[in-house]
């Protein structure tokens, strides 16, 4: 009797409920043997065998830094049987600069970075967990103090949810700093900040005050604290941490490659 009821329920349930299955496009298979770099008119293009790489919008893909071009070619050479574009951060950043899908201008990114600092992760300490707040103060405060001294600003930590306001002079100093970078490098800054939710930690990495690993560890401080109390899924949290390190590393490299190239050009023209 019970078996019959269960069988009828299952049959009625199947007939009344439509199961929705989401189909994802399979990643493209690797179609080339070797990725290379060619130089033309001061620009560097990526070749996949005899084909020149294009952006998602079909525009010619190029960069103005030879080390960056080599690094991008290495990303393509590192692909195995299929092409995993989600792991090719330098390629994605370069394509974004060329295609500019959001029509961002330099001042848009400068304003975004300057305004982001009001909500920077390392400025907001816990108001409930005493041990966490103590750890945040020990780990984050030295970084904030370094940032204040290095950029002539006056940031202060808070345990309130109210977003603090800062004097106009501080915003002007930060705006002047970010405006000194070219558009490509600013895309790197935005990518880094979106990855670790901290402009302060990003600036510390770019200035080589802290390492990539340290920046990610500081950005994940609260998450790591909670995992210490409640445990963690071994592989999942490790993958998240390593993915953040890969993204931040790519962003900082992108800033370096574009900045050093502009610096060399400026020195040559003197």
Automatic annotation (TrEMBL):
<protein>
    <recommendedName>
        <fullName>ATP synthase mitochondrial F1 complex assembly factor 2</fullName>
    </recommendedName>
</protein>
<keyword id="KW-0143">Chaperone</keyword>
<dbReference type="InterPro" id="IPR011419">
    <property type="entry name" value="ATP12_ATP_synth-F1-assembly"/>
</dbReference>
<keyword id="KW-0809">Transit peptide</keyword>
<dbReference type="Pfam" id="PF07542">
    <property type="entry name" value="ATP12"/>
</dbReference>
<dbReference type="GO" id="GO:0033615">
    <property type="term" value="P:mitochondrial proton-transporting ATP synthase complex assembly"/>
</dbReference>
<dbReference type="InterPro" id="IPR042272">
    <property type="entry name" value="ATP12_ATP_synth-F1-assembly_N"/>
</dbReference>
<comment type="similarity">
    <text>Belongs to the ATP12 family.</text>
</comment>
<dbReference type="GO" id="GO:0005739">
    <property type="term" value="C:mitochondrion"/>
</dbReference>
<dbReference type="InterPro" id="IPR023335">
    <property type="entry name" value="ATP12_ortho_dom_sf"/>
</dbReference>
<keyword id="KW-0496">Mitochondrion</keyword>
